[in-house]
Amino acid sequence: MANSQTGKIDHKKHFSIFFNLVFLTALMVAVNYFKLPGYIAIGIIIVLILIQAYLVAGHLMHLILEKNNLVYIVLILTGIFVAGLLLLPAFESKNLFEGAHHVP
Q1: Most C-beta atoms within 10 A of its C-beta, which of 4, 49, 67, 95?
Q2: How many Å apart are CA 46 and CA 40, to the nearest integer?
């Protein structure tokens, strides 16, 4: 990110974000070796992915500086859509959709 007064790029901030992303990725790999139950491991990994998405979209893509509410509305709708996609198999396995029958 360029400094508005001097025009210089803030390399320390970019390296800090890069090393945080590497650290979070290493944590995601380490979660696999802890032998946690599936839903707990997936929950931890999703939280780590959300933190990584915040770092990339917020700082590297400069969305943290946006004052436009449209960006936030799109992000919230995308999150709701993804959550719905993640929960859809759970609803299907519990037969909450009674009209959804598979015909062989």
Answers
A1: 49
A2: 10
